[in-house]
Structure formats: structure tokens, C-alpha cells
Amino acid sequence: MSIALAYLRFSSLQMQGKGSSISRQKDMVTKWTEEQKLLMGKNYDEVSYYIDRGKSAYDGTNLREGNLGKLIEEVQRGMFPEGTPIVCESLDRLTRQGVQHIQQILTQLTRTGCVVHTLSDRQVISKDTLESLGGIVTIVAVADRAREESETKAKRVRDSKLRNYKAAREGKKLMTKHLPGWIYLNESTGKLCVDPEKQKVVTRIYKLRLEGHTFQSIANIMNDSGVPVLNASKGARHWLPNSIRTLLMNKSVIGYSSPSKVNPLIEEIPGYFPPCISETLFNDVQDTHVPAKRGKKTRPEYAEAVNLFKGLTVCKYCKGNVFPNGAKPGYWGRLRCMGHHNKTCEAPPIGRYAFEHSLVTRMFPLLRFFDTTKQEDPSAAIRSKIGHLQTGIDNLYNMVRDMGYTPEIGKRIKASENEKEGLERQLIAIKKNIESSTEENMSQLNFDNYNDRLTMQRILSRTIERVVVDSFNERAHVKLLNGNVLYGFPLYGDSDASLTLQKALSGTDDELFAELGMEKPLHTIYMVTSAKSQQPYDYNAVYYNKDLKQPYTVNQGESPHHPDDSKYWPDVEPDYPNE
């Protein structure tokens, strides 16, 4: 099977608001693959897309934080055969940082034999191209033009925003069309006005805060009263604690515009909006906020404080994160989703200990039969980023030598050196924390020990991409980092999928082994309830492989692993959020 790689990027989230940028680039890639099939006889069965949304190539964000860094890392690890095409609209999609950066990126992409194709100017860049004078001259010209265009656009945007800011200070125009939810533009007069009904809502929220209500309590009152959110056009349908907190600290309610986060010349403007509440009420509410203690909080070191599946679990119904609630020493608490916490999702909480114990003791043994690792060492990508940063630092010092020191260059040097030091610390941490994520390692750890649970947490995070919790049906759908999926895994009961698979594999001949596709990781594994079974927790395992026309079904075995729920759960538990 032939595969093509495509890198797509756009810098501005507003540009993608109508879906035009990515759609246009995808259309260009599709047209290119059709031309390759028609004119060159090359049929690419699959196109793997690496997309960076809202990532700038001018400051290298797409390389440091985006999928371009991932693409380079996978290419350098030799994951793609020689001659694999890497398609992009133009070189400025890769970087706008100048000649040295584009040469370094192209060298990394072509070193193992991949070939870069640009669709706008039809360049074909291979390892040989980078060794020829003609190829280098063309690349230099394109990189210089892209850099100049970016600098020109950036200057125009900065100047335009500054002009708008100065006009706004003089009361001549609005800086932006985006207005607070309680403000609207009167089309007939051209003036900003306060919506009287929404003004009552804002005032009520501020007064509730003065009465001592928490952010969560105020959100509950608003939702229970059926009060609509202030700005439903942004997609919000329910009041959340964070939206209450933001409103209570927003100086727009007393008429101030927000200062720019990136341009220190654009400061807040008093009187920009008509006031919604009095300054006295606003200041009284600010006085109720207790400032956070300085310094890092001490982390509680008891086993119940460690969430094994931290950042991995989401609710099937509301798509919100699932997190422990009510955990304290001697009590594991329960797992509930953010929607249940905010009273917007009816999915019930589930027992945390049984959930974690079930997945670790019954599901994780199954994973040893599959390649659960990504076979990915982030060190290569980090070293590549450090190399880019060092090149940029050297260039900045050359600018200082040639043009003299300026505060702007000094800031850029300091920022780059700080980022480089941070990446170097990451490398050290990676070397210290590399451990084999095998079932044998997990079996040696104590489930109820604080430090062992931290180790379990790291192992699981390198094995599992996402756990979708279906608390209504007491099942979980688990996606591994390598793409395999366990669908419908029962959270309770004594069935152990590993025993069935072990039995199925132990006595198979080569023909059946090949039929199962076990010479490589299975792409999807489905666990489904058996229609013939009378036992509520018995189920069949159906193993799908994309090369098989029919699933392979085997009966399920049993496992002694099952926690005693009554031992860990009281009849009545406190219902309060961890805040």
C-alpha cells in the first residue's frame, strides 16, 4: 500500500472560521493525488494528514507545539519508506523564519529518503536537491519572500490595531465588533447600549457574591432559575463556575475595555462601554476575593489523592472530563463527569476504586498481547527543537554584533534561551522517567501505595489515549495510543479478556494465526455482550482486523480478579465537589 503525507496549516483561527483554509489545502492535495494517478501511474491508497490549526510559522509555534514537529520526528525515525511524498501548499506552510530554518526543516524531512512536493509552485525537493546549487538558490528565494511577506503583514496588523486603539480613546470608533453579552450596538444611533434585562442578571450575580455564595452556588442558582446565559451566540447553554468567576472579575461591567495581552501600547480605556453596575458594587465584590497563597501548594501524599487515569477519562454522554469527587484519606470517592458536577448531564457517578481496579487488573493484562506502545521517543523531537532554538539564538547574537543591541532583540534572546533551558530539563526528566509499560511492571506495584500509584499513572498515560466512560451501562471504551480500541469493556464482574485471548492464541496453527492478523497489532478490538449468555457479566470477545472480512469470535473465560465493592463503599457518601 502506497501512502502520501500531507502537511496543512493556517495561522489565524479567524481565517478558518468558515472552514476555507483547510478545505482549500485538502482540495489541492486531492487534486495532486489524482494527477499522480492519471499522469504518473502512482496510486496513493492513503493520505495521512498532519494539520496545525492556528499555529504560526512566523515564530515557529507549529514546529515547537504543533504537528510539524511530530511529522519530522516520525520521518527521522524511519517510519516511512524511501520515496514517500510529503505534500504541502508551499514552503511557507512549513516555516516563515528565514533561510536557515527552512533548510534545516527540509534536511530533516528528506534525510531518510522522503520527497517534499509543494503544490503552489510545483517544486519537488529531495535530498539531492538540497545538495545542488540551483535547488538551494530557489529555496532561498522562496524563504526570503515568505519572511518579508510575514513581516509586512505583521507590521500592517500592528499599525492597524494601534490606529483603532487611538481612535477608540478619542471616542471615534470601536476597536472590535465583539461586545460583552450585556452590551449591544444601536444601529440607528450607532451608540453602545446596555440591555436592561441582562443588566438585572449581572447585578443579581454580583449581589449573590456579596451575600457569600460561591461561584458554583451562583451557577446553580442561575441554572435552576432558568436564567439564559449572557452570550448564547458563543454556544454556551448553561452557567458554569468559570463563567461566573470571569464575569465577577471583568472590568467591562464598569465600562473599561480590555488591554492587549501582546502590545503594551494598547492599554485599557475607561468609559469605552456604558457601565452596567456601579463602581462601588464592583469594588465591593473584588474585596471579597481571597488572594491565593504564594508559592507552590503542597501535594497531599496519600494513595487516594492519585488519579490513575488523570486526563484520560471522558463521559460518553456530555463529553466532559471524568474526575474523582470526595476523595480523602481512607475514602476513594466516586467518579463523575463535569456535566454531572454542573447539573447538565444525567450520567450517574460510579465507584472509583472498582473502576480503577477493574481496568488495571482485568483489562491491562489483555494489553500485553498487543503492541500498546507508540514506539515513540520524544527525545528526538525535543533535540530537534533545541537545535532550532540554538540556531535562532546564534542568529540573534549575530544581529547584535552587526546592528547593535536593542531591547527587542534582548527579549527575544532571553525568551529563546529560557525555552531552550526548559526543553533541556524535559530531556533530563525523560531519561529519569523512562520505564517499560508492561503488565509485569504493573503487577509489581501496590495499588494502595502513593508512590506506586504515581508510577502506574505514568505507565497508563504512555499506553492509553482515551477512556470513554459509559456509566449508565457500566462499560468503558478504551483507545490505545497505537490506534487499537477496546469497545464495551465491562467495569464490573469477573470476566478476564486476557484468558480468552491467551487460550485462542496458545493452540492456533499458523493458518489461524495469520487469519487473526496477529503478526501485527490488531486495529480494533470489540468487547460485546453475549446474547446467549444468562450471566450479566459474561460476554464474547470479537476481534476485528481491517484485513478480515469476518470477525473472529471466541467464548470468554473467567478471572479471579474482582474487588469487593461492599468493602470500599459506604451506603451514603457526601455529595460535594472538590474545589
TrEMBL record:
Keywords: Coiled coil, DNA recombination, DNA-binding
Chain coiled-coil ranges: 413-440
Signal peptide start and end residues: none
Keyword Coiled coil (UniProt): yes
Residue numbers spanned by region Disordered: 552-579
InterPro entries according to UniProt: DNA_bind_recomb_sf, DNA_bind_recombinase_dom, Resolv_N, Resolvase-like_N_sf, SSR_resolvase
Compositionally biased spans, kind Basic and acidic residues: 559-570
Domain annotation Resolvase/invertase-type recombinase catalytic: ranges: 3-168
One Gene Ontology term of the molecular function aspect: DNA binding
SMART domains to which the protein is assigned, alphabetical: Resolvase
A Pfam entry, by short name: Resolvase
Source taxon at top rank: Bacteria
Domain Recombinase: start-end pairs: 181-295
Entry protein name: Recombinase family protein
